[in-house]
Amino acid sequence: MEKTPEAASDSESSVYSDLEEEEDANTSDDASSSNEQESADSNNDKDSENENLKDHHEDQRNGEYFLKKNSEEKKVEQVEEYAVDSSDEEDLRNTVGNIPLRWYDEYPHIGYDLEGKKILKPMNSDELDQFLKKMDDPNYWRTVRDNTTGQDVILTDNDLELIQQIQKGRYPDSSYDPYEVREVIYNFATEQEEKWRSKEPEERKTNFIPQKFSCLRMVPMYADLIKERFERCLDLYLCPRERKMRVKINPEELIPKLPKPKDLQPFPTVESIVYLGHTDIVRSITVEPVGQFLASGGDDMTVKFWEVLTGRCMKTIHFNGKVKNVAWCPNTSVCLIAVAVEEKVYIINPGLGDKLVISNTDSLLQTPLEDVGAQKQQIISWSTADNEQWTQGIRCTVVHPRDVHQITWHSKGDYFATVMMEAGNQSVIIHQLSKRHSQLPFQRLKGNVQKVLFHPLRPYFFVATQQYVRVYNLLKQEISKKLLTNCKWVSSLAIHPKGDNIIIGSYDKRLSWFDLDLSTKPYKTMRHHKKALRQVAFHRRYPLFASASDDGTVIVSHGMVYNDLLQNPLIVPVKILRGHKVTQDLGVFDCCFHPYQPWIFSSGADATVRLFT
Amino acid sequence: MAASTNMSSFPECQVKFYTKQVKYSLPDSIFSVPGNATSSELSDLINALLKDWSEEEWKTVEFDFIVGGQLLRLSLQELLDKKEISNETVIEIEYFERYPTPTPQDSLVHDDWVSGVQACKDWILTGCYDNTIQLWTIEGKHLLTIPGHIAPVRAVAWIEVGDPISTFVSTSHDETAVIWQWNQQTNAIECVNVCRGHARSVDCVGVDPSQGRFATGSYDHMLKVWCVGDQEDGALEANEGEGSRKRLKNDAGKNKNRTPIMTLAGHNEAITGLEWTSLEEVCTASMDNTIRLWDIELGGMKSQLTGSKAFLDISFSRLNRSLLSASTDRHIRLWDPRSKEGTVVKCVFSSHVGWVTAVDWSPVNQYHFISGSHDTLLKLWDIRSPKAPLYDMTGHEDKIMCVDWSVPSLMISGGADSHIKIFKSEVVTEDEPME
Fold first, then answer.
1. pLDDT-derived band of residue A29, with 50, 70 and 90 as boundaries?
2. Where is this chain compositionally biased, Basic and acidic residues type (chain A) (predicted)?
3. Buried b vs exposed e over A491-522: b needs ≥16 C-beta within 10 Å?
4. What is the phi/psi pair of residue A443, to 5°?
5. Which pLDDT belongs to residue A72?
6. Which residues fall within 8 angstroms of residue B66, CB to CB, at 6 or more apart?
7. Chain B closest-CA separation from residue A613 CA (Å)
8. Cis peptide, bond prior to residue A108, ω within 30 of zero
9. B54, B191: one domain
């Protein structure tokens, strides 16, 4: 008997809809109808069964239908009876299913019987027949055609009464008086009660014994209500349903498994050498491609060259402006360094390293320029150094219209690009050393260019504006990608030596790693620094990258890029390097790795350059 | 004659003392000493015994003790626990006179950083970052300033000390090694040969035991071997092909230029230390984390020892045929180049707090060596005491760049404070040859 509430109400409604139909069917044979009527005149026995059912409804519905009870009892009774024995008459009924009957308009038959033979439509009587019928048949006026079967049906008195009641807008059952005050009196006969008691609790039709009360108000609370409700809930709880695989997740397991920093050796861990000599902020450092020397430049208007292993200052070149950027030419067959001082870029031969290379470099730069004077007014002008400059090491000067903020070399060492932040559309200029020629690669430039970078292997060019990094294909001369950095102000940019990953640092303390094959959004963003990032750098050989910040620290991270394209890069921060003093809220300005050793150099506002190994 | 100094609750140990130093020998007997005895207490005990024993007036001598191959620095019990020696057995303890405290003897002021130093019996040769080589007497008297290089001098080495003419070699950032002849009587110096061939600074030099050849290591990753004596013309011709580039500059008809008799490539990074281990073998330390042994006769690499950090110097002891390496990871390692299996690193000496830039074995004692570091300390070590050095010698105010212990009584260090510091110590040799 237990059903879910929904199912119960469903079955209820279906019972009622059946009811009407059955009534129709019943009325078709007049003879039985009186019978029904009789039986409806409830003898106690029958009613008790009715009551059982009814009471059940009550139980479920909290007596909502209580007042209707009398009339409905009978119908329910009929339904019950009919449901048992009406099966043999079914043949006559519609077999075509619930479809519009006009589909069969063109056919002589309507539907099929069990053997698959066509059921022919009853003969259609014409107008004359109709008329004759009207005259002859006393029941003509109460004959209607059942559209679903095509049969004529003679309405019974009951039906007529029902129709009349409905037409008058009254209760369909004329015997029903909604205002009648009724008493509910039900009781088990003794033998019934015995029978009820003898059954197993599960088999009992009802789980209570009807008792006599004068009115509903008198009915006490059902004694087993709580228990039954509980059992009901238990049933619902225990009933088999769709099995849900509950995945047990340990919060610990959600943390990605990262190797221990100890297993990721080697990486720089301790400060080893401090290069002392500068008197003001050291803005930029660069390491010779072979790794024996280091150059640094800063606000004290000098560029100093250091021997890496000893910390010895080998050479100092003075300028008449603050040095913004230094960049050693990556080509090992020449010995050159580019220095940005205000609006000039000096190409300097520091005279360190292989003597033969040094002299070759000079002879290369002494070769007379091709006649480029005819070039239409250039905003950039190249000039060869005078004698005084030559002895200092300066070989060429490239004069820009505005202050130069960044110099970056192409990996082959012939081209280099400069950035002038205040020059609008002309912010980026690409220079060719061998031809001593400059060009503007972009007609229009969106945004305020912060940093530019050459791709180490392919002809791509990265332009970082405040919020975006645009990747240009230099061969096709088109933009190929635009990276969304999600930060407010990009400060620095570095590319993995294999060229598929870049990192950017921003003034809003973030470092973002982009996998260029993966997405234009950061693969990973790290916020380990407490203040703005000034520089980011990749190691050429070891899977290391670093970020330098105004909080005075350099954070070294392990950044493994796998050859397997399906495997994401492994990024593990491994070491915070402290050493620089924060001076006037400025910390570390630049950092760069040694080309061969797992060492990192950093320069800061405390006028020092430091080596961590 | 059971002497017991036991007064504490520590378990007693049965010990037997022995020594290789005959003058301090005692008759065999077993003593019972408390477990918490330290070396100074044991030293007092030995002194008391010796005083009883000797007929003459006994002067107190400080002794050091070796238990299970390690110097006693903590209490006896702690060392026994560490070495897992049961104190039920009789423990044999070797004692010997403690290494006498080195005393600062002299400080030689230079104009610039001192990056190379080597002493011979009477003179000290130093290489300086002001492109000069300085010659001093052992007493600290300045003899000569030799301006020969055009870039900082990196290393110096005596080739032959004769009377009156001595020869030595210096290497420099200017990519050359120069052979000099010095007449001690006239104090005249002559540049004999300029060895050209390296493409970057020549950072280390070593003279072979026969004093006929020397080898140089450079930042250009190359190891080159040069002949000291007069080069045959034939040899010159033979080398002309490969060396033509290096012989571009000739000094006014007089060909002082010299080309290497052998160039050995193999290191992937700068060679920072070099030492001859025999007449035919050179070992080199490099920043590519390897130590390589080269066969000079065959002209190839023999074997390779791999470390984990860049090496900065190497030293070879003829007494125990072991190598010492100085490294950027602040440790000194003792290598046995002959062992093929197992760990080649026999011992790690950790006490420096900066890069160890130079190491040198004692010329007379197989257990002792000195090391200099960026932490400004010169340390004297006994290989039986890896955790703590025997002595820390302070004095430098900046990085130490070179050390030398060629003269047994002098430990010399030079550094970035432009000073040479000389420490004097009594010579401690072993009375018995090693077995």
1. very low
2. 43-72
3. bbbbbbeebbbbbbbbbebbbbbbbbeeeeeb
4. -70, -50
5. 44
6. B72, B93, B94, B95, B96, B384
7. 8
8. no
9. no
User: Which residues of chain A lie closer than 8 angstroms to B272, CB-CB?
Assistant: 309
> Of B41, B71, B97, which one is at a domain's C-terminal end?
B97
In chain B, the number of structural domains is 2
Query: What average pLDDT does the segment A204-214 reach?
Result: 75
Whether the model pTM is above 0.90? no
Site from B153, B203, B219 to mutate, A interface, most A CB atoms within 10 angstroms: B219
Output the CA angle B57-B62-B66, nearest 5 degrees. Answer: 130
| Angle at CA of residue A292, ends B330 and A511, nearest 5° | 80
As given in the structure block, the two tokens for residue A408 are: 């970056």
- Look at residue B251 and tell me whether its pLDDT is greater than 50: no
Say whether residue A567 is in contact with chain B using an 8 A CB cutoff. no
Q: Which domain holds residue B49?
A: 12-97
List the single residue in B200, B288, B330 with the smallest CB-CB distance to A354.
B200
- Cβ A312–B374 below 8 Å, yes or no? no
pLDDT of residue B28: 80
Spell out which residues of chain B touch residue A270, defining contact as CB-CB under 8 Å: 330
Say if the Cβ atoms of B200 and A292 lie within 8 Å: yes
Query: Cβ A354–B220 below 8 Å, yes or no?
Result: yes
Position A307 scores a pLDDT of 92
Express each pLDDT in A400-423 by its tens digit.
988 999 999 999 989 999 999 888
Q: What is the CATH number of the domain that holds A524?
A: 2.130.10.10
Which residue in A has a C-alpha nearest to residue B310's C-alpha? Answer: A597
If asked whether residues B23 and B132 sit together in one domain, one would say no
> ipTM of the predicted structure?
0.86
pLDDT tens digits for A46-82? 444 444 444 444 444 444 444 344 444 444 444 444 4
Domain-located, residue B184: yes
Nearest CB to B399 within list A270, A311, A354: A311
Work out the average pLDDT over B276-295: 92
- State whether A596 and B269 contact (CB < 8 Å): yes
Task: Give me the mean pLDDT over the B335-364 stretch.
Answer: 87
Are both A469 and A538 inside the same structural domain?
Answer: yes
Model confidence at A387, pLDDT cuts 50, 70, 90, reads confident
| Contact at CB, B175 and A292, closer than 8 angstroms | no
- Provide, for chain B, the percentages of residues in helix, strand and coil under a 3-state DSSP scheme, each rounded to the nearest 5: 10, 45, 45
Nearest CA in chain A to B401: A310
Selecting from A312, A356, A613 the residue whose C-beta is nearest the C-beta of B328 gives A613
Question: Does A277 contact chain B (CB < 8 Å)?
Answer: no
For B296-428, strand residue ranges (E) read 300-306, 311-316, 323-327, 331-335, 345-350, 356-361, 368-373, 378-382, 391-393, 400-404, 410-415, 419-424
pLDDT of residue A38: 42
Which of B128, B196, B201 to substitute to test the interface with A, most A CBs within 10 Å? B201
What residues of A are in contact with residue B416 (Cβ under 8 Å)? 310-312
Instruction: Choose the final residue of a domain: B58, B79, B97.
Output: B97
Same domain (yes/no): A391, A494: no
- B83 shares its domain with B123: no
Alpha-carbon distance of A192 to A235, in angstroms, equals 29
Residues 6+ apart with CB under 8 A from B23: none
Q: How many CA atoms lie within 13 A of B97 on its CB side?
A: 17
Per-residue pLDDT tens over the stretch A473-519:
988 888 998 999 888 999 999 999 999 999 999 999 999 999 988 88
Q: Tell me the residue type at A61.
A: R
What span, in angstroms and rounded, lies between the C-alpha atoms of A215 and A304?
Answer: 108
A169 in a domain, yes or no?
A: no
Residue among B296, B298, B302, B263 nearest B278 (CA): B296
Contacts of A356 in chain B (CB under 8 A): 199, 245
Q: Are residues A23 and A53 in the same domain?
A: yes
